[in-house]
Amino acid sequence: MKRIICILMSAVILLAALSGCSGQTVDSAPEPQMLLGEGTVLSQPEKPESSQGSGEVPSASDPIVLSSQTEALSSAAASSSAPIPSGGSSSGQSSSSSQSSSMAPGSSVPSGSSQVSSGSSGSSSSQPGGSSSGYDGDEYRAVWFSYLDLSGMLKGKSQAAFRQNIKAAFQNVSDLGCNVAIVQVRPFADALYESEYFPWSYLCTGTEGKNPGYDPLQVMIEEAHDLGLEIEAWVNPYRIRTSGNNNALCSSNIASQWEDEEEDYVIRYGGGIYYNPARPAVRELIVNGVRELVENYNLDGIHFDDYFYPSPNDSFDSIAYREYKSGGGSLSLGDWRRENVNILIRDVYSAIKATDSSVRFGVSPQGNPSNNYNSQYIDVDKWLSNQGYVDYICPQIYFGFNNATHPFAETVELWNQKIKVSGISLYIGLAPYKIGLTDTWAGNGKNEWINDSAILARQVQSARDYKKYGGFALFRYASLFNPDSSVKSQVEKEKNALADVL
Q: How do residues 455-471 score in pLDDT, each as one tens digit?
């Protein structure tokens, strides 16, 4: 008997030793990554600078060409079947410490296939704040493809080469267990598709207005649907050029024509060029462009991000505001700006539903509500308290659990409580681009993305407990499937942990 006990005790000790091996660490000095405005009064911008800010063309440090499926997932990811959707469809990571940690405590979540559903549904599980879980197995699992991701796959490529590239990329998304691709098809008042209203994007050929000889959006739709993925067209409504983008506007671009003929339909500000949200002709152009997409393409959704007003400075639209006030208008500048955006969002929603009611419309604002209201001039609370604005909201909650000012769980709860009407889902924007990096503005939580290798999985599990939760979106493709070599090992750990809960 003593011999048996000794054998059993030895086995227990051996198992404990083996389980402890996963805690190995590799020390290195993380290099902080600055985000646009983060840490200022207009703090916590939601996308890294290279994705939407100054850099328009990917640099050598952002290699995104993908001609084959080179990112093989571990057995954990490979064994996770991709959900089958209904409807048929920053880079710059550097210097990290590849250090693993255990998953947060909590019960296991359902696995297997799930479909994207519009609107939230309840279940019996409880969550702080008195809400019940909205997760019932139907989950929106998206990956953002920014123009930086697409440029290297597309620019100067033949149709066959681009098809091969995007097919491999979508296969990676599917293998991870995700079911939606959000592709940026109108990044700079241009189009990655044939449009009546916007010129061909310079991202296709290097020259704005030049036809690449095929339709990249149609190729993406075909390849996404063939893999059982849904696909949403990501549109930047007001942005024409950002600071540092020196690509010339072609003569057929209405922005160029308006800049010559109209006083302030197009505004140059802070080194960038923007449509004026106050002008009805601008709103009509944007709505027509969205309607065209829904009419001509078999899309599953239309997606706006967090680019609305470029500045709180009152000089940006002073001419239009003076006209409004002289005509008897009584709204403050801030309320007037917010109403200009409200009109656009309502009109876009109506145009989509009148064309194809099955196509969803969502917006991805910043995760910090005060920034949205006071600097972007979007009234998210109004959208989420009334029908007719959005089908989903996808706040960019790019914060860790230990973020000093916007801890993840509390921020999700805040957004969960904002949705006051039925039929609107809460999707959570997550930040793979932070994996392995110092989170500069997170206070005491600045090393969380270095010391933990399962944050994304924990965040998905945590968010599933909230009543309005319907899914998540990952920013962005290259951060997951073509990261910098210094963080690649940790990115793989994060992907494997995430695949385990999908």
A: 999 999 999 999 999 99
**Confidence band for 133, pLDDT divided at 50, 70 and 90:** low
Distance CA 221, CA 182 (A): 11
Sole residue written with tokens 């499937």: 481
Angle CA 434–435–437, to nearest 5: 70
**DSSP string computed for 157-214:** --HHHHHHHHHHHHHHHHHHT--EEEEEEESSS-BSS--SSSPBPHHHHSSTT---SS
How far lies 356's CA from each of 15, 35, 360, 369, in Å?
A: 57, 37, 9, 31
pTM score, whole prediction: 0.78
Please give the Cα distance from 68 to 299 (Å, whole number): 25
Q: Domains along the chain? A: 29-500 (3.20.20.80)
Bridge-based pairing state of the strands 230-235 and 180-186: parallel
Q: What is the pLDDT of residue 132?
A: 57
Distance of alpha carbon 456 from alpha carbon 142, whole angstroms: 13
Backbone phi and psi for residue 446, each to the nearest 5 degrees, phi listed first: -65, -25
